[in-house]
Write a structure and sequence with these properties.
heterotrimer; A alpha/beta (about 650); B alpha/beta (about 700); C alpha/beta (about 350); A: about 650 residues; alpha/beta; Four Helix Bundle (Hemerythrin (Met), subunit A); Rossmann fold; 5 domains; seven-stranded mixed β-sheet; three-stranded antiparallel β-sheet; 15 strands; globular; disordered N terminus; C: about 350 residues; 2 domains; 11 strands; about 10% strand; guanyl-nucleotide exchange factor activity (chain A)
């Protein structure tokens, strides 16, 4: 960032003093960075110790994590952002894939040079009319933080009366009915909700005099009745429902859409989480939507704003879910060879999609569908596969160890991929992975990146979901043993929904970003600049950078890079590596040559774009000339620096000489 | 101790619910299908003895009866009764220790289930409620619950409910659902009483009599998801009822009869739907196919191949992954693989590099190298040479398939047939050592004949007939049967189509799917069940056809038609109409539809002459004349190209004094119903004819 | 003549027992526990000894072998039948030996010389006739019967030695032995039982209800959740259908998964198995080992057309290798899996193993 100014100064007048200033800034910034880094590290270390001690720990701690990126947006040096005075643009997502492609191309570099100019300008602009920009910045943050933060703990704190009261109050405030727990709860799970399907959340709602949008009510019912199940289906349904909501929304007088709409959504969300605790994927989707909304410029017209949001949502569905699954099946098919016997569990839309694709690609393979009571989702999967003409075998999970010797690969879907590499998925998945391990059958987990989740969890108890216990009741040849289980006080039925699979059971995770060993999924390093989260990178990415630097500048200049490890890292090792990486990054940054090198900065930029999904869209570039005169140019955020210069030069001919 | 436990157990299963004394549960097993469905296979072996998964079907039935607690079984056999008798006496059922005492009753006079039950009644064999099953029912249902319900009902309202039919729940399109008894049942939800019962097979629309809906109950179920297990719990009245109504031939006659005359006789029929049991009847080869595969896939557990319930020595086979069953002494060549659902009989030798799936192979077979078998049912002592490919076909005992032969879907090689080498049999080929002509002769006797006579007497004929190498290959031995011959699709032909008419060319029967659809023997032609009229028409046609073939006297024809009339309770008027229609359409049936009018008339007139007595017998009153003319008219209205013939017909009938002139005049003068008929009346020839009549009248008057 | 109808009566009973055996095989929901089967078998064998015509131990043994084969064939999965037959054969040998004066114990010592001679010698020896042999044998069989009566109690008596207060115990399906075991412990201690339901037969539900009646805190979980909750379990106590010669188990299916899960969390796995479940069978022969019931159990017949294209399997038993098992609790005390072979040799005579 600031370090770039050295080269950039020539492009604009008044360079010198700016330079000085910036250099100065860069220096102390460096310190800030390191300090910030350190304390964050300390916090995280503490956190991990905590994790071991008690399960409650992480979620609360986790609050901070999501919060981190939030305030960053206004401040971080997202190029386009600085260009326009209003924080519209850090918003519309750009497919990660796209970001990947443009890696290290010349264009890339140009782009980032341009961006540096932008910084330059903005810094000036900041001096000139800093008030306006700065004032607008902090505001959006609170509105988009709360729900993200609160949502997690409340559904796993049922045993804590205080938390319950808080929840009750909140719902009260939002006029959302509070659902009552049902039946005897197994002591181990007393911190989770347990609802009965027979008591739908809408019972207490007085239709139509409700604050809740009908489409949301419908959705809620579908969730709670299990009509819409499966992480993908649920998120898609959610997004569509929100589209509907936004369609029907109109801003009340003397209100601002970006504020009001967000506030309007939060009761909906808490209603939905009353119907059924939100899935990680939904969490991400909601986060995204809120960000979008809060980024709607205040002066933007309502219609167009709604239009924008609709488009955003469509893009999200398309990129994060549809395209992602296609990308995944593309890689996954490579893993399916002729004569394979593939074991699948339950009904994962993604896995089904993969298998069908593979079948259409004329791969010869057999599928074994494993199923489990009480949901018996496998039957649905079975129907779909058989309709396709795939040869299937069907067993219950208890017959697993009978069937497994035939199996050559296990494909599993995921509900979420936790930050500590654990796979959260339909209960039973971990069991299958376990037995597969025992029989040395490779286990592949397929998971879209939008299901990645910041939470960490080491067992299936802390944050899980209890389904209606009555589902377990079964009638066999006329006898129903559990008919009146409610009356027997010492009898409990446990209908768990998820479990977590430890990473060492999983051989490979197939994501839309490619195949990665399970452990490396979560170990993404947050790089903070100016004390705010700048971007999130993986070890592999940093390593790539390192390799490049070595190529360009030779080994002698480059600080030592933490060694690559073949085997999965223990938490301790992860910490250690983090420290080393931190040192490395600082060293690089502070190195006069490297720190200001194209490569390094372009790397940071790319990382940032990936992390924050800088969109391609039209923005207005304001150029402040030395004579205080202001010029406005419309450009695309994806424009090359040259283009921008070309455009700007028109207005200030004298600068030709400068170039 | 052990023994007691056993007894108690059986008691629990069978007789615990019995309240009228300690009546042992009885069963009537009919070891004859009373149709020629499985000809030519059943020419050499009665259906009940055909092996299914290497065990005779009747053994399954008996096992089912025994395990469901039947203590006394009457086996009625007719066709090849001696063979069945022999088999049973050898089997464990006739051992003194068997918990189920089996009585074998044979007679060659049985022509239908009706006859048997009448005999049961005559001999008063049954004392209380009894089970009624065919000899080809495979099931593991525990009927005790149904039995209990049945008895309950009979206790409550004395002897109202006469029969409880047992159905199995299975969604439409299920492989094991035999489409030929694809039924639609309307039942009273609470009392499980059957209100309406009709064959749904190849029906586009269904009609229900209104009255069933305003009868007592407020809860109706109209169910199409039922598979008829052909197992019914009958009370003794059933036999009596059969005696009373001589025209009941099959159970369907009975059921429909009871339902129709419910108000009068006050008898009811109930049903019991089971979820977990399995029950199906092997009524044609498609059913044979699917039942066998169900057997191999263990749907009929605990009746599975390896349990060897029949207790034959050395037939105990082992079961391993993917449902592969091997009996002792099986040898498998190098590189051969049994993929899934395979049963191989003892001492069978299989060559190298064979691929076998979904197949049953009997004992002492020899299979060559590079043989591919899929859904093949190979019975005992079959020899298959190298490079043979068999798909969904049946090869009976002693058959031989030579080098490089390919059997496509639904081929049947009856006993001792030899095929090949290097020939490809088209789908649906049926080969037998008996010449089909033997078959034709016995086509002539009445519908309900069973398959006994007629074979022996023309054994000799087969000798001096030569095998057609085009059909069976150079070294082949056997005659091609016309079972799948596609040129004519008349019902009685189709009855021979042992796979069910999947090969039937006419579009409405779906030739694509495996769903079996066929006919329950000649007595029930393709036409949808409920409209008796059509059935009757076919019957009449058949009758006349036969009458023509071996010129039966008209009075006999009349007799037969009358009996049919009663069987399908058809009104006299309808008889008249149908008769006319049949006769008029007769040439089309004989010569095909596209014959010229002149040919048509030339064919028709002699027929009219021949059958005038028949007509006379029905056309007596004036009204009859009118009806007759009316139906003549409508026949011709359908075929407006044939109007020229109308005059000739009328003329002829007038001359044969079937129709009287004033009748014709009246009909003519009568207001035409449709403009089409008006056109008809405008027809040149007709006008001339009428004119001529009028003149004739006048002249006759003039004479006075 | 009296003998005749005795004979027929006997054979009738045998037939009845056979059909009974065949029938109770359907599903694992067999009507009677294996304990009962064992008792009935023994009783029947006693009857045979009493009523059948035989003059010498040899004849009797042949007779019993013959009947025994039929019985085992009737229900291959019910190994207890075979075991009981072997026990009785052993008894006859012993009684015969005693009446011959030499003790079976000495025969038991497997010396090379013994192995060499035994084949021929013991055979012709059994031809000898002893007047009291019948009485003695019947006597001994009665003892065996009384022993069988006591097994379950003997096992449950040891409960308190293995269950400490408020621990979390997991079990699977329904085993009468385990049921008694836990109930016995519950009289003194409070603890929490988690029962895996063991689909598709769900005997677990039955188990859970009967346990909760004794107000033991019981939780029913679907089989899928076994691994998920295992981390909180501190003992796994299961029953078994057969204990194999190598110390492995032939238990209701799902047990292997359970055992693996227990291993992964290094939770002790305790097996309650009365002696009559020990069988000199080894897990190698797959065909008789597995037992499959109708796929209807897992996939309803009403599923319709897809059934023709799908293979659904519903095995009843799992093989659990000995290394996953921590402890056997039999009616004669606790043993390690490695010790099973020894018990085996005490219970059965090596020559009867194949029978």
């Amino acid at each position: 960032m600031a370090d770039s100014d050295g080269k950039q100064a020539d492009s604009i007048n008044h360079a010198t003093e700016a330079k000085i200033h910036d250099v100065a800034r860069s220096k102390n910034e460096g310190k800030e960075l390191t300090k910030e880094e350190k304390q964050r590290l300390r916090k995280e270390k503490k956190q991990q110790k905590k994790t071991k001690k008690d399960e409650k720990g992480p979620p609360e701690k986790e609050k901070e994590k999501p919060s981190a990126p939030a305030p960053s947006k206004p401040v971080t040096k997202s190029p386009s952002h600085k260009v326009a005075p209003v924080p519209v643009n850090a918003s519309v997502p750009e497919p990660p894939a796209a970001a990947e492609k443009s890696a290290k191309t010349k264009a890339e570099m140009k782009a980032e040079r341009r961006a540096r100019q932008d910084v330059e300008r903005s810094s000036k602009q900041g001096k000139k009319e800093g008030g306006q920009t700065s004032s607008s910045k902090p505001k959006p943050s609170p509105s988009e933080l709360q729900p993200v933060v609160k949502r997690l703990p409340e559904h796993i704190q049922v045993d804590d009366p205080a938390a319950l009261k808080k929840l009750a109050k909140k719902l009260e405030r939002q006029q959302v009915p509070l659902r009552l727990d049902y039946g005897y709860k197994v002591s181990l799970f007393s911190h989770l909700h347990q609802y009965s399907r027979k008591a739908p959340p809408t019972q207490q709602i007085s239709i139509p005099a409700t604050v809740i949008h009908p489409s949301i009510v419908r959705l809620g019912l579908q969730y709670s009745q299990g009509i819409i199940a499966g992480s993908n289906a649920r998120s898609v349904a959610l997004l569509h429902a929100f589209k509907q909501v936004i369609q029907d929304y109109n801003t009340p007088p003397n209100e601002e859409l970006s504020r009001d709409l967000v506030n309007k959504l939060s009761p909906y969300i808490s209603f939905l989480s009353q119907c059924r605790p939100l899935s990680a994927s939904m969490g991400n989707a909601i986060k995204y939507i809120k960000k979008e909304i809060s980024n709607i410029p205040s002066q933007c017209k309502e219609e167009e704003a709604k239009q924008k949001l609709q488009i955003c949502i469509d893009n999200y569905i398309n990129e994060k879910i549809t395209l992602a699954s296609q990308a995944i099946s593309k890689c996954a098919i490579e893993k399916i060879s002729n004569g394979d016997v593939i074991l699948v569990y339950g009904c994962s839309s993604l896995v089904n999609h993969i298998l069908c694709d593979a079948f259409e690609k004329k791969r010869k393979f057999r599928v074994i569908v494993v199923d489990s009571r009480p949901r018996l989702e496998g039957r649905e999967a079975l129907r779909r596969l058989v309709k396709k003409g795939i040869q299937c075998t069907y067993v219950l999970i208890s017959a697993l160890s009978y069937i497994l010797p035939e199996v050559s690969k296990v494909f599993l879907g995921a509900h979420a991929l936790l930050a500590n590499g654990y796979v959260m998925s339909r209960v039973g998945t971990s069991q299958i992975a376990l037995v597969a391990k025992a029989y040395n059958v490779p286990v592949l987990v397929c998971c879209e990146t939008y299901k990645f989740c910041e939470r960490v969890q080491t067992d299936s108890f802390v944050s899980n979901e209890l389904d209606d216990p009555d589902d377990l009741i079964v009638t066999r040849n006329g006898k129903t043993h559990l008919k009146d289980w409610q009356t027997v006080k010492s009898l409990g039925l446990l209908n768990l929904v998820y479990d977590v699979t430890p990473p060492d059971f999983v051989d490979l995770v197939i994501t839309d970003l490619g195949m990665i060993p399970c452990t490396s999924v979560p170990v993404a390093y947050n790089i903070h600049v100016n004390g705010v989260l700048h971007c999130r990178v993986r070890y592999s990415q940093l390593l790539g950078l390192h390799e490049q630097i070595k190529k360009e500048y030779g080994n002698n200049v480059v600080p030592t890079f933490p060694p690559k490890k073949i085997f999965t890292l223990t938490p301790a090792e992860v910490d250690q590596r983090r420290e080393q990486l931190e040192k490395y990054m600082q060293a690089v940054r502070q190195d006069p040559i490297l720190g200001s090198s194209e490569m390094f900065n372009s790397f940071l930029r790319k990382a940032q774009q990936e992390t924050q999904q800088i969109p391609t869209e039209e923005v207005q570039l304001e150029i402040y000339l030395s004579n205080g005169q202001k010029v406005k140019i419309n450009i695309l955020t994806s424009d090359q620096t040259e283009d921008v210069l070309e455009a700007s030069v028109v207005f200030c001919p004298l600068q030709r000489s400068g170039l | 101790m052990a023994g007691k436990a056993g007894k108690q157990n059986r008691a629990r299963k069978a007789a615990a619910e019995q309240d009228e004394g300690e009546q042992p549960l009885q069963a009537v097993l009919i070891a004859d299908s009373f149709n020629r469905r499985l000809f030519p296979i059943t020419k050499d072996q009665p259906r009940a003895l055909l092996p299914l998964a290497n065990v005779s079907m009747i053994d399954y039935t008996l096992e089912f009866l025994t395990s469901t607690g039947v203590q006394e079984t009457f086996v009625f056999c007719c066709w090849m009764s001696n063979k069945i008798k022999e088999h049973l006496q050898k089997s464990k059922w006739c051992r003194p220790t068997s918990p189920n005492t089996v009585h074998i009753i044979t007679s060659d006079l049985y022509r239908s289930l009706g006859d048997v039950l009448r005999d049961v009644d005559a001999k008063t064999l049954v004392r209380s409620d009894f089970l009624l099953v065919y000899g080809d029912v495979v099931s593991n249902i525990d009927v005790s619950q149904a039995l209990q319900e049945h008895r309950q009902r009979r206790k409550i309202e004395k002897n109202i409910s006469v029969m409880t039919m047992i159905f199995k729940e299975s969604s439409p399109g299920h492989k094991t659902r035999c489409e030929e008894d694809d039924i639609m049942v309307a039942m009273d939800g609470k009392s499980k009483r059957v209100l309406h019962y009709q064959r749904a097979q190849s029906l586009k629309k269904l009609q229900f009599p209104m009255n069933i809906f305003h009868s007592g109950s407020d809860e109706f179920e109209i169910r199409y998801d039922l598979l008829d297990c052909h197992i019914s719990i009958c009370s003794p009245q059933v036999a009596e009822l059969f005696t009373d109504n001589f025209d009941y031939q099959t159970r369907n006659d009975f059921v429909r009869g009871i339902l129709v005359s419910e108000e009068i006789l006050g008898n009811q029929i109930h049903m019991h739907v089971t979820k977990d049991g399995y029950g199906a009847r092997v009524s044609n080869l498609l059913m044979y196919d699917s039942v066998s595969s169900d057997m191999i896939r263990r749907w009929i557990y605990p009746i599975t191949p390896e349990t060897n319930f029949a207790g034959h020595e050395g037939q105990s086979c082992t079961h391993s992954r993917h449902n592969v069953y091997r009996e002792p002494g099986v040898s498998l060549g190098l590189g051969s693989q049994m993929e899934e659902n395979v049963l191989i009989g003892r001492n069978t030798v299989i060559g190298a590099n064979c691929t076998i799936s979904n197949t049953v192979i009997g004992a002492n077979c020899v299979i060559g190298d590079n043989v591919i078998l899929d859904r093949a049912y190979i019975w005992n002592r079959v020899h298959i040479a190298n490079n043979v490919k068999v798909q969904q076909s049946v090869i009976c005992d002693g058959g031989e398939v030579k080098q490089g032969v390919t059997l496509n879907e639904q081929c049947v090689l009856a006993y001792n047939v030899v095929v090949g080498p290097d020939i490809t049999l088209p789908g649906g080929t049926v080969l037998s050592m008996h010449h089909p002509d033997e078959e034709d002769e016995d086509d002539d006797d009445d519908e309900f004949m069973s398959d006994d006579n007629a074979v022996g007497l023309n054994k000799d004929k087969t000798k001096h007939k030569v095998f057609n190498p085009a059909d069976v290959g150079a070294e082949g031995r056997g005659y091609r049967w016309k079972a799948s011959s596609l040129e004519d699709t008349e019902e009685d032909e189709l009855a021979e189509c042992i796979w069910g008419p999947v090969l039937n060319p006419d579009p409405d029967s779906d030739s694509s799917s495996q769903v079996s659809s066929g006919f329950d023997g000649p007595s029930y032609p393709a036409s949808p069940e409920p409209d008796d009229v059509k059935v009757f028409q076919n019957e009449v046609h058949g009758t006349l056809q036969r009458g023509l073939d071996e010129n039966i006297g008209c009075d006999n024809l009349v007799l037969e038609i009358n009996s049919l009339k009663y069987a399908y309770n058809i009104t006299l008027k309808e008889v008249m109409q149908i008769l006319t229609r049949v006769v008029l359409e007769f040439p089309f049936h004989q010569q095909g539809v596209e014959i010229t009018t002149s040919q048509y008339t030339s064919h028709l007139l002699p027929l009219l002459k021949k059958w005038s007595p028949v007509f006379k017998n029905y056309v007596k009153r004036v009204q009859d004349h009118m009806d007759c003319l009316a139906s003549i008219e409508e026949v011709f209205l359908e075929r407006d190209t044939r109007w020229a013939a109308l005059v000739k017909v009328l003329m002829n009938m007038y001359q044969l004094e079937i129709l009287e002139e004033e009748a014709i005049m009246r009909w003519f003068s009568q207001a035409a119903t449709s403009d089409k008929s008006r056109q008809l009346r405008k027809n040149q020839g007709l006008l001339k004819f009428i004119q001529w009549l009028e003149e004739a009248e006048e002249s006759s008057e003039g004479d006075e | 003549m009296p003998g005749g109808d005795k004979e027929t009566d006997l054979s009738e009973r045998i037939e009845a027992f056979l059909t009974e055996l065949k029938r109770c095989g359907s599903g694992t929901g067999s009507l009677r526990g294996s304990a009962e089967t064992a008792r009935e078998t023994t009783a029947l064998l006693r009857r045979i000894t009493a009523q059948a015509r035989w003059s010498s131990a040899g004849e009797l043994m042949d007779l019993i072998r013959k009947e025994g084969r039929r019985m085992t064939a009737a229900q291959p999965s019910e190994t207890t039948v075979g075991n009981m037959v072997r026990r009785v054969l052993k008894i006859i040998r012993e009684e015969y030996a005693r009446s011959r004066g030499s003790s079976e114990e000495t025969d038991q010592q497997e010396s090379l010389h013994k192995l060499l001679t035994s084949g021929g010698s013991s055979e012709d020896n059994f031809r000898q006739h002893f007047p009291h042999l019948k009485a003695n044998v019947i006597e001994a069989i009665n003892e065996l019967l009384t022993e069988l009566e006591g097994t379950t109690d003997n096992i449950s008596m040891q409960a308190l030695e293995h269950i400490h207060s408020n621990e979390v115990i997991m079990t699977i399906g329904r085993s009468r032995t385990v049921e008694a075991f836990l109930k016995d412990a519950a009289r003194k201690r409070k603890f929490h039982v988690i029962v895996a339901e063991c689909a598709p037969f769900c005997q677990g539900h039955e188990m859970a209800t009967s346990l909760s009646k004794e107000d033991i805190e019981t939780t029913v979980i679907p089989d899928a959740a076994i691994f998920a909750v295992m981390s909180r379990v501190n003992k796994v106590i299961i029953g078994t259908q057969t204990v194999l010669a190598n110390g492995g188990l032939r238990a209701v299916n799902g047990t292997h998964t359970l055992a693996l899960a227990a291993k992964h969390h290094s939770t002790p796995l305790v097996v309650c198995a009365p002696m009559f479940k020990l069988s000199p069978q080894f897990p190698n022969e797959e065909d008789t080992f597995h037992k499959f019931v109708s796929p209807h159990e897992v996939l309803p017949f009403s599923e319709g057309e897809i059934l023709s294209k799908v293979n659904a399997h519903c095995p009843v038993f799992d093989y659990v290798p000995p290394e996953l098992i921590t402890l056997f609790i039999s009616n004669i005390g606790g043993n390690a899996p490695s010790y099973i072979y020894r018990l085996m040799s005490e219970l059965y005579h090596p020559e009867d193993h194949e029978q």
